Amino acid sequence: MVTWHGVFDALSIAFILLGAYLCLSAALGLVRFHDTMARLHAITKPQSLGIIFTLLGVALRVTASPTFGPAERGDLGVCALIILFTLITAPTVGQLQGRIAKREKLYEPLMLSRNDLKDKAPKKKKDPSKDDPAKLGERKKARYEEQRARARAAAEKAHKEIQRHHNEKGEADIVSEDS
């Protein structure tokens, strides 16, 4: 005669073995896949399902225990929390890792079905000399001189425009060359 404890034990063994198989396939995928994006798939989907199935098997085994009491209920609560946190964190971490991998170009563009970064211009590289405090004064002085040169050029351009406007009307020069 088959008892409920035997059925729960068989189901728990099946869930634990299925979870272990999925975790093993995730580990093999992590080692065998060729680029970061493929590896992300291996470490997010089968790994999460493997943990969930393993914990469901543990929960079934704890529930089928003949000495099921308050301590075992606490174990079920811990299993439920682990499953919940796995479902919350695995997709988020996978998405962030994928974003970093795209930013760092740790993928093969030909292997993607869609590449959002294809038409994006690359960022300018930061000049390491800008971190040197000794060159700070030189940079400030050069920036000041550049601003003065721009202001001088703008004033000359405005002066020439005023002169041209007055020459077109036949008026005398209001601004002399001395000023």
Structural features, described:
The chain has helices at residues 4-32, 36-63, 70-103, 136-169. With 179 residues, it is mainly alpha-helical. The longest helix is centred in the middle third of the chain and has 34 residues, at 70-103. The mean pLDDT is 82.
Distance between the termini: 114 Å
User: Structural class given helices, strands, pairing?
Assistant: mainly alpha
Helical proportion, percent range: 55-70%
Strand content: under 5%
Please tell me the overall pLDDT.
Answer: 82
Task: Describe, in short, the structure shown.
The protein has 179 residues and is mainly α. It has helices at residues 4-32, 36-63, 70-103, 136-169.
List the helices and strands and how they pair.
Layout: H1 4-32, H2 36-63, H3 70-103, H4 136-169
Structure keywords:
single chain, 179 residues, 70% helix, rod-shaped
